[in-house]
Amino acid sequence: MAESGPVSDTLWDEFHALVNMTSRELRDWLSTDAAGEETEEVPDRAGKRTGRRVLGILGKRRTDLTEDDARIMEQVCDTVRSQRDVSRDPRAGGDSWRHGLMSMGHDPLKPA
Questions:
Q1: Where is the composition biased (Basic and acidic residues) (predicted)?
Q2: 74 neighbors 53 (Cβ within 8 angstroms)
Q3: Largest CB tally within 10 Å, which of 12, 13, 59, 103?
Q4: pTM exceeds cut of 0.90
């Protein structure tokens, strides 16, 4: 298949393989992670900016993706790859490591 638009076939496939949380799972996680004892963020602004961007990308058709979306997708793929060695035990990084990855849509404990 020919590559078209700002997102190549390779990036599209890698992003969707590494972002293993559904839109609903990610939205729920961002809301939970952003909820504090004293305050809770507005649902559409909950969570880290990158996580919100990933959520937006998951809700788009490939033909609607922008150059900026492609940069976020590349950033997420690079980060997940650098922090997630395939030989590494998914529990090896601890809670804060896992939560950081989950805020980008990748749950290392989720079965492949």
A1: 81-98
A2: no
A3: 103
A4: no
Per-residue confidence (pLDDT) for residue 112, from 0 to 100: 73
Kindly state the percentage of the chain with pLDDT values over 90.
Answer: 55
Contact 21, 110 (CB under 8 A): yes
C-alpha–C-alpha distance, residues 91 and 31, integer Å: 23
Mind listing the pLDDT tens digit for each residue in 46-87?
457 899 999 999 999 999 999 999 999 999 999 999 888 666
78: amino acid identity, one letter: D
Map residue 7 onto helix, strand or coil: strand
Distance CA 46, CA 2 (A): 36
Task: Select from 68, 94, 69, 72 the least CA-distant residue to 83.
Answer: 94
Structure-block tokens of residue 101: 């990855």
